[in-house]
Every structure is written in C-alpha cells, then in structure tokens.
Task: structure prediction
Amino acid sequence: MGNPFQDQLLKTGLVNKKQAKKVNHEKYLQRKKKKKDTPSEISTRAREEQAALTKRNRELNQQRNEEKRQREQRAQVKQLVEKNRLERDDRGEPYYFTEQNKINRIFISEEMTDQLSRGQLAIVKFGDSYEVVPAKVARQIADRDTKALITFHEKSSSIE
Result:
C-alpha cells in the first residue's frame, strides 16, 4: 500500500482493505480539492497585491508631479524677479514694511515710495533679500507663489 502504518493496521486486523481504500480515496480528494483552491487563492492575493502596488505608484506619481509643479513655479518666480526688478537707491529714503510680524526696510527713491503707496510697484522676497517690481509682475508672482509677495497696495475697485 505504501503506508507502513496502514499496513500494520491491516495485518493486525483493526481495519480491512475496504476501509483503507476509502481513507486513501478521501485523502486523494482532499489533495485534489486543495490544489484547485490554491491557484484561485494565489490569483486573488496577486490581484490584491497588484491593486495595492498600483495605488501606491499612483500616489507617488501624484506627489512627484506636485513637487515638480512647485519647483517650476519657484523657477518662474525667480525668473520674473530677475528680469523685472527695479534698481534701488541705497542713498534714498528708507521704506519700512512688515514680514511675519517683523519690520524690515529697504532704501528706495522718493518716486518709488510714491509708486509703492499707489500700487504701481510691489516688494517681493527674492532669496534673502527684497526686490521692487512693477505691479503687473507682482500679480504674476502672486499667481505662482503668494508667499513671495511681501508688500503690494493693489488698487481696490471702489465706487467713485
């Protein structure tokens, strides 16, 4: 029969051949059923793992795209400021402004001070320093990075 324990039971007469054959047949059916279940379980598990992996990849791609978009916007702001900044007059009068509850100052001409108060110019943060740019450029910068815009007295549409 192939099973030494089963052979011993047959020799002692505790079981007969019919019972042994029935037990072998049941074991065979269980093994066959187990083999059928295994591929479906494996495929289900594989599908779940694939779905989880796809979801994680999608989230990582969204995160990378967002970081890339932010880098591009910072580069655009830098380019706008570099191309459009106005020369400051270090011997001019100080212009005081606040940034995060801290009072700062830059030296600009009287004409620039007047233009700042009328909303024709704006102050933006550029690295560790501050630059003065035209109002049109300030609006473009505000669209890309509101944190870079420090002082901008934009004209409000009031009824005259």
